[in-house]
Amino acid sequence: MQTLHRHAESMSSIPRGSTDFVTFVYGTVFAARTRVVDRLHVGERIILVPDPPGVDEPTVWAHSPGGDVIGHLSPDVSSWLVPAMLAGRRCGAEVHAVEGPAVERWKRLRIRVRCHE
Asked: What is the pLDDT of residue 12?
């Protein structure tokens, strides 16, 4: 029973192939990324960049409009979004919510991702 529970926790609530969804940005605590997050505002555009082909566990990276790395999308979302983007799906995002220091760091930034062919 414990194994099933752990598996359910690791599954994404975002269905594979979704083209409009809200998700957290992870890795915002490394380097000076927290300062970049603190500069963001709701509605601001976010640039999404997939890792290039050949990376063992490819990730979709989130960048500020000026190009600063903010963080990355979760491995479960990246597992299907990277191949879609490399196959030609265009995806962008905007800041959906920025939370303060009272919120866990991995939940501080939520973005809305929108994709189209």
From this structure: 63
Q: Where are the beta strands (DSSP E) in the chain?
A: 20-24, 45-50, 60-63, 69-72, 90-98, 109-116
Q: Indicate the DSSP class of residue 108.
A: S
Contact 106, 61 (CB under 8 A): no
Domain boundaries along the sequence of the chain:
2-116
Residue 5 confidence class, pLDDT cut points 50, 70, 90: very low
pTM: 0.84
Nearest residue to 116 via CA among 74, 76, 84, 79: 84
What distance in Å separates the CA atoms of residue 66 and residue 8, rounded to the nearest whole number? 37
Instruction: Work out the number of other CB atoms within 10 angstroms of the CB of residue 51.
Output: 17
Using DSSP's 3-state secondary structure scheme, residue 71 falls into strand
Q: Does domain 2-116 have CATH number 3.30.70.2330?
A: yes
Q: For residue 20, what are the CA distances in angstroms to 16, 73, 80, 82, 98?
A: 11, 14, 14, 15, 19
| Tokens found for residue 75 | 């491995």
Length of the chain: 117
